[in-house]
Amino acid sequence: MKPQPIIKPTNGDRSSFLSSLGPSIIQPIKGKRKILPQNDFSIDSIRQSSKSNQQFNETLEKLLHERESLLERIDSLEGEVIRNQDLIANTRQQLSLINLSNQSEIQNYSENQSEEIEDGNFYQEIMHNDREEHNNGQLNIDIGGSNENNENNYSLNATEPLSIDQIIEKALILQPFLHDDVNLDSFFDTFNSLQTSEKIEFTDVSINQLQKIALCNDSFIKCKEYVESPQFVEVFQSRTQNIFRAYLDDISIFLYDPKSKEYSCTTKTLFMQVPLTQGNSILGDILAQQKPEIVTNPLQHPSYSSRIDKPFNPQSQPFLAFPIDTYALVMVRMNKEPFKYEDVLVAQFYSKLVVPLFNVHIQHINLFRQVEFRRIIHNFEVDLSEKNTFESLLTYLLASLSDYVGANDANLYIVNKDSFFTYEIEADQIVKKDYQKSGIIESIVNNKCEVEVEKLNKDTCPSYNESIDNWAFDKSYFAHPIFSNSVFGFSDKSSEKNQDSSENGNGSRSTKMRKGKAKSSLSIKQQETETNVSKNNENAKHVIGVLCVSDKSECNKFNKWDIDLIRTICNTLSLVIPECIKNDSALVESSDKAAAKQFTQTIKSFIFKTMEEPNSIEIIAKAIQSSINCEWLSIYTTHDISSEITKLITLHNDTVVDTNFLDPSFIRMTFSKHEAINTPDPQQLDGFKTIGDITSHAFLCGFNFENSEKMGIFVMNSKSGDSKFPEAFNTILPAIAGFIIISKFIRNQNQTISDGKSATMTMSNAFNICNSLLNDPDPLPKLLDVLKELLSLEYYSVLRINKLKSEFDSVIRSEECPKGHISSEDILTSHFGDLKNPMLINDFSLSDYCNSAIIDFFPSIKQLLICPIIENELYGLFAGKNIVSNYALLYKYFYSLIRIFYKTSLLDSEVKIVESAELNKIDFYNSKFTSDDIDSLSFDSQFFNNSQKEEILLKIFDKLSIVDTLETNVEQLAIFLLKVRQSYNDVPYHNYSHAVDVVQFLYFFLIKLSDVFSPVQQASIIIAGLLHDVFHEGLDSEFLKKSYSPFVYSYGEVSTLEHHHLSSSISILQDHLIFDQSDIYYNQIFWDYLTKLILATDITQTSKFIMVFHTFENDFNLENENHKLILAKLLIQIANISTCFRPFEISQKYVEALLQEINTQNEEAKSREIPITDIKPIKEFEISFIDEVAKPLIQCLIKIFPDFSVIEDKLNSNRESWDNYQP
């Protein structure tokens, strides 16, 4: 048995296999990665992920090698099982003869006259054998607990003569199966020394003991069939039940998890994962001692653990436990009969027998988990990238955490300035709730740590606080911080107004995500685990949130796979949460804002008309000044108090003035505090200062910070009699500020409507232009010309990424602009991937991009507009001097039209752009394929996708320097390979994958025969292998002849199909690779080899070729060009049937595909009433082909190059596998 090239379950589908591995296994989904780096932290995460993937690939390769060795070991153990079965059969035969003899003796036996043997001599012989076994370091197994005075322990070193029961207990017949140097002599000597009445009892017991060994062998054979199946443990458990006379429910199997270094086992109610180490439990002791043990009284055992031992043996039954190396531990509870010493010996034999099976099974599970883990991480990032609101995020997060890690409950806390806040989903509505900083969440934020406990409470986690952590009380729990390089500030008032929601006395839920009913769990106390953040987050300065999961479904705790997944989820959430906060901020409404809206409703009846006036702010400001009766009034606004604060208007005695009456530093300081002030003596205020000689005697200010736009109203010098401002204005002023914001919003909306009308006209014009260009043979350049004119710019150039060369090409441009290329690493183009909207560079010469090579694309640049058309692929650049102000609106309306014309016009007229889309999938320069991957006999092209196949072919062409030989370049060669792929039909066998397999096998030959063929000959050999079956329709030459195909009249009846392939190959080469400007176009050797090699692939001519080869094989001369051509023909014929020489699993797959193709041809023949020849069964078909075609061909090659005998060895191995094949 050899390792499969693809790791997958051998029985059952993928989902059933995942579910069998426990609640933590991740279900596969599909998708493409969309999340892009947004800051330094995300880049570090991606780099770490790349490093992790590289380590995973190295680990995977190592494990595959180990797996192959283990499977070979299992094969050798099969031989040992067969030898054991022979020994059992022979022993049974001898015991049968003994039974017949015993029965004869009993008939003559007299009850009054017992014929006794000399017990003393017999006893001495037994003791002598015991001492020899002990001195040779053989079997030495204790029974019972470790207490030496345990009355239930058995002693095998008695000093008195042994009774028949003691002799039977020694199980002498089992010794040959435990020790290679022990035979049955001791057993038969003991038998002969027994009295007649004892012989039958001794024989019957021995036969039963022998039967257990037979059951062990049967179990090994059966379990081997399921070693890579999810049913393996279940099958092993069932077989073990028969061996030890136990009920199925009384057998527990603890399977080792390499990731957590713990053991998992399923009880009747729970899937548990526990550590098994010496001293922590009875099971841990047995595993550490690596020998079977019978425990008769578990409660009195010194290592008994109520946490570990009790859940798996709640009735404290006597049990037998035996380790299977460190891979597993088997526990058999006594139910039917008491355990005997023979059970210990059988367990020892059984354990050693199945060790390699458990090793392979655990590695298979671990490999599969790693593959699925990375698959789910990839797809989680894809789905999460589209969640930009908490409503979509929380719903998706709930389902993901439930499905992927089995969490019945989860919380997402967002870190505010002085509190935590969450969004709870209630009746499909998002409700914000605040909690005081406390409990485990505060500990995580302060220490930048994660917390993992098996049961959450005050004892297991000292930082536990009921008010915030009670939702997860006494349940499995894991929490991990979410890091970011930036911190988000929130209003303190918001947290104060929502504080009451957290003080409900029963730990009310936050971001509540509950699924299912809490399962019963074990009372296991686990210390709080606080670990340092991963290296991935070392550069992150802030904790912006904490993700908590609790109550793992049907399991005692979250395992290491769950924890690693949650850590990765937290890394991804760090990119999504800030956007969710931004988009959902409008959903959180405070009571103050509601009051402001109510005030607006009260006053809008008499001043609503003013809100639509162009000078509405001036009208409202004068109404405020008149109402308050003040000398000075100013209104300021900002969207961010850390940036510029803008003055909207200043009034002095009902007149609009440009003069400021307050110092800007005082205005900024007051804005930063945004607290209402009403004082008759402003000089007492910190930092208060007026401008120039303006005097002050009363001051009032109020703010409205409830919207994204912050508004402040400043009033000075009351004109009332007492020179004071009434206290009522302390609350009215913020409300009026809110009203001004609304007025400003309405004014902006009016402007938007006006712009919309203008945009409608622009859009109408755009559609008219589009309609006029529909029948134009080249519409896209004209559309770009129109957009250029509307933008009031002079030039444009459209750049398309060429990933194969890591550069951008100018594919469409103004007449004045030159054609060119620019590196994707250029100071300007390197930022293209981050663009979501148009980017305007106002003065290119003074910008950070002034040294960019883009300057060579335009006659002159002052302003440069960069418009993304297709993300990461196509960008439009417009250059000129005076761009219009509504350029973003123009781009918005022309964007879709440009994309449509690009896809319907440019892609149809420029085939290379289509090809480029495929070329971009090929990563030749960063290829991960090594020489070992490409020149292996185990190569299987069906394992790779099409882009990877092209990458492999490019590697082969590069290794053999064919690119230089053909006077071409990598890009042109890649385009040629795409054309070749398109030239192969989708038939079961003679398809593109077959061509790649043939090329790889030819490469395997050529790297070992590099001095035999010239570069031109090598190039011709490889290209012949690549093209030899182009346009194959799954029909052979015989069918074409019988169906009177036009090909027969065109190419003749001999090698009809091969002549067709040759003609098509020459056409493809001359159209897409070898042009008449190159020397190779006129090279006679190249075309001569290509012609004769493609024709040599006619399998019906193989026998004639072999006869010709034998005529000169003894005089073969590599200096003879004709001999070299014969050798080349031999190589391509062997390569054409290369699947015969690959591992059996691969070979079988291709034979089945070939038979499927032949069956399809026969169906077609029947429909045309063409006579057909019945197909042999697959076994006979392939054996006949190996004997008549494959073996003679490879033997011809070995006569010239004996070093290739390894290929014949593989063929012989496959021949033997086919002999043993059972359909």
TrEMBL record:
Q: Where is the PDEase domain?
A: 914-1223
Keywords assigned:
Coiled coil, Hydrolase, Metal-binding
Domain of life, per lineage: Eukaryota
Q: Which InterPro entries match?
A: GAF-like_dom_sf (IPR029016), HD/PDEase_dom (IPR003607), PDEase (IPR023088), PDEase_catalytic_dom (IPR002073), PDEase_catalytic_dom_sf (IPR036971)
Q: Which residues bind Zn(2+) 1?
A: 994, 1028-1029
Task: Cite the Pfam families for this sequence.
Answer: PDEase_I
| Active-site residues per Swiss-Prot or TrEMBL entry | 990 (proton donor)
Q: Where is this region: Disordered?
A: 494-536
- The answer to whether keyword Metal-binding applies is yes
- Bias (Polar residues): 501-510, 520-536
Coiled-coil stretches are 46-80
User: From the Swiss-Prot or TrEMBL record, what is one GO molecular function term?
Assistant: metal ion binding
Query: Which residues participate in Zn(2+) 2 binding?
Result: 1029
Q: Which GO terms describe its biological process?
A: signal transduction
Q: Could you tell me what this protein is called? A: PDEase domain-containing protein
